[in-house]
């Protein structure tokens, strides 16, 4: 398994980046740079990237093999952008702590049933 940030230039820019994602499976955050692909996919990407007439398509093929970087997770990448998560959980920090579990799936603002009815 290798991180996207180690891909050749051109692919790295298309796939990597420092913005955060939150895995929908393990609810932990990581940057696009840290997303991993299997060694075989990585090796092919390195081999075909130089002189590839269509890096966009190659990047797309690689992204289809992308996985969650956490060793105990490793599911095919299914993640939300951190800003999207924060839009539903304004209490979350601007930059997530890596390794921390943010259970964004839990219903946001489940207004606790204690609405103030003014009585
Ligand atoms: Zn995960």
Verbal overview:
This protein has one domain. With 119 residues, the protein is α+β, with helices and mostly antiparallel strands. The protein has helices at 11-15, 39-48, 55-63, 82-88, and strands at residues 2-3, 20-23, 29-31, 36-37, 79-81. The strands form 2 sheets. A 3-stranded antiparallel beta sheet has the order 3-2-5. Strands 1-4 form a two-stranded antiparallel sheet. Strand 2 (20-23) and strand 3 form a beta hairpin. Helix content is 26%, strand content 12%. The termini are far apart. Bound molecules: zinc ion. Residues 23, 25-26, 28, 68, 70, 73, 75 line the site of zinc ion.
What is the compact description of this entry?
The protein has 119 residues and is of the alpha+beta class. Helix content is 26%, strand content 12%.
How are the secondary structure elements laid out?
Blueprint: E1 2-3, H1 11-15, E2 20-23, E3 29-31, E4 36-37, H2 39-48, H3 55-63, E5 79-81, H4 82-88
Antiparallel strand pairs: 1-4, 2-3, 2-5
Descriptors:
119 residues, 5 strands, two-stranded antiparallel ribbon, three-stranded antiparallel β-sheet, 12% strand, binds zinc ion
In the predicted model, the low-confidence regions spanning at least 5 consecutive residues are 107-116
Q: How many runs of DSSP E, i.e. beta strands? A: 5
Q: Rounded to an integer, what's the Rg over CA atoms?
A: 18 Å
User: In which order are the strands of the major sheet placed?
Assistant: 3-2-5
> Given the structure, what is the number of helices?
4
What structural class do you assign from the helix and strand content? alpha+beta
**Could you tell me which ligands this complex binds, including any ions or cofactors?**
zinc ion
Instruction: Please describe the biggest sheet, giving its number of strands, its sense, and whether it closes into a barrel.
Output: 3 strands, antiparallel
- Calculate the mean pLDDT score and round it: 90
Strand content: 5-15%
| Count of spatially separate domains | 1
Helix content: 25-40%
H and E order: EHEEEHHEH
What is the overall silhouette? elongated
**Distance linking N and C termini:** 60 Å
């Amino acid at each position: 398994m290798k991180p996207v940030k180690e891909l050749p230039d051109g692919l790295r820019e298309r796939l990597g980046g420092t913005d955060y994602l939150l895995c929908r499976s393990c609810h932990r955050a990581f940057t696009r740079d840290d997303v991993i692909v299997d060694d075989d996919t990585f090796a092919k990407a390195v081999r075909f990237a130089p002189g590839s007439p269509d890096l966009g398509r190659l990047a797309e093929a690689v992204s289809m093999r992308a996985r969650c970087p956490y060793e105990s997770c490793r599911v095919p990448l299914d993640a939300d952008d951190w800003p999207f998560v924060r839009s539903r959980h304004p209490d979350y920090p601007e930059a997530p702590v890596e390794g921390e579990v943010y259970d964004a799936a839990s219903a946001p603002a489940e207004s606790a049933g204690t609405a103030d009815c003014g009585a």
